[in-house]
Automatic annotation (TrEMBL):
The UniProt record lists the keyword Chaperone: no
UniProt-listed SUPFAM superfamilies: Nucleotide-diphospho-sugar transferases
Native species: marine sediment metagenome
Biological classification of the source: unclassified sequences, metagenomes, ecological metagenomes
InterPro entries: Glyco_trans_2-like, Nucleotide-diphossugar_trans
Transmembrane segments: 283-306
Protein name, UniProt field: Glycosyltransferase 2-like domain-containing protein
Keywords linked to the UniProt accession: Membrane, Transmembrane, Transmembrane helix
Residue ranges of every copy of the Glycosyltransferase 2-like domain listed in the record: 13-153, 179-306
Length: 337
């Protein structure tokens, strides 16, 4: 594909930052180095960082538009500030812990222009070693959460064997099971998907005007799946575009267990189920989580006295599982869309 040259600004890149100064600097460097042939602007939303991120932007990237929040407003609310201010035809939501691996942004916009029914486009996410990160999936449902909570893929050794099992069983039991076992399913071609990761998400302005902005009742996690679900209900498509590649640094390097994010993720999961599938699904999800995490908690409790140097990490997991099991699904979040 040949890069096109636009006569007017069509793209606004929105980057939400919270205490990520060094990562943000690298992200901005990659944006200005890689994106060519497009008139674009960058807007950074700072969620009350205490690491002098805003001073770095003002000094090193004076062309960047900056929104400075006093507090951490969460992913959805802060990004919505920028979405409402932007007048661009396309908005690219980009995590600060990413860097552009190639200059295929023009091709993304060309694809969107040629496919006006597509409201959201996701990219290929890479680890620092070049391996592929999961960047799209089926909409969350009780079956996907059953597979995740009980970690059935661990019973099958080796990625190759897992993919073969997924192909065989997926043909009988459906694409959800196939995608679960095939970690990097169809990563080489453009295809329609249910939802894409908010780490790098291109959205059409007309689709936002039709569907609305991100749901601010999600503080963090699941707001991307919720947005794509609402797009689908309104008739817009979400697609995966593998030719635009982004290195996502947190995906593989962040191996330590963080109880706070683990708990917040499950709060958002409950809210997603409550909003889109009803309280019966929330009740069944709570049963799945309670039974699955009880087994994990008991297993960790057995090995905890003998864990040595890993005791602190196991202690975090014990705490995290207990807190998640104590969440009452009906009290989490409120749908405001």
């Amino acid at each position: 594909m040949q890069a096109r040259v636009l006569n007017e600004m069509e793209l606004e890149i929105l980057i939400l930052s919270y205490n990520t100064r060094e990562l943000l600097r690298d992200c901005l460097d990659s944006v200005y180095q890689k994106i060519k042939g497009i008139e674009f602007e960058v807007m950074v939303i700072d969620n009350g960082s205490g690491d002098n991120s805003t001073e770095m932007i003002k000094t090193e990237f004076p062309q960047v538009k900056l929104i400075e929040n006093r507090d951490n407003l969460g992913f959805a609310r802060a990004n919505n500030q920028a979405i409402r201010q932007s007048g661009a035809r396309y908005l690219l939501l980009l995590n600060p812990d990413t860097s552009l691996a190639n200059n295929s942004c023009c091709e993304m916009l060309r694809f969107m222009d040629e496919h006006p029914q597509v409201g959201i486009l996701g990219c290929r996410l890479l680890n620092t070693d070049g391996t592929i990160q999961p960047s799209n999936s089926s909409f969350p449902n009780l079956f996907t959460e059953f597979l995740r909570i009980f970690q059935l893929k661990r019973l099958i050794p080796g990625l190759g064997l897992r993919e073969k099992v997924g192909e065989r069983l997926g043909g009988i039991l459906g694409s959800t099971l196939r995608e679960y076992f095939r970690v990097y399913w169809d990563s080489e071609r453009i295809r329609e998907v249910d939802w894409v990761s908010g780490a790098c998400l291109l959205v059409r302005r007309k689709a936002v005007e039709d569907v609305g902005v991100l749901d601010e009742s999600f503080f963090m996690y699941y707001e991307d799946a919720d947005w794509c679900y609402r797009m689908r209900k309104a008739g817009w498509k979400t697609c995966y575009f593998p030719f635009f590649e982004i290195i996502h640094y947190v995906g593989k390097s962040d191996s330590q267990f963080n109880p706070s994010t683990f708990i917040e993720r499950h709060k958002s999961m409950y809210h997603y189920f409550r909003k889109h599938q009803g309280m019966t699904a929330v009740f069944l999800l709570r049963l799945l989580i309670f039974s699955g995490f009880t087994l994990r908690w008991l297993g960790l409790l057995v090995i905890y006295p003998f864990s040595g140097e890993e005791r602190q990490e196991l202690g975090k997991k014990l705490y995290g599982y207990l807190k998640v099991m104590a969440i009452k699904g009906r009290s989490v979040g409120r749908a405001n869309q």
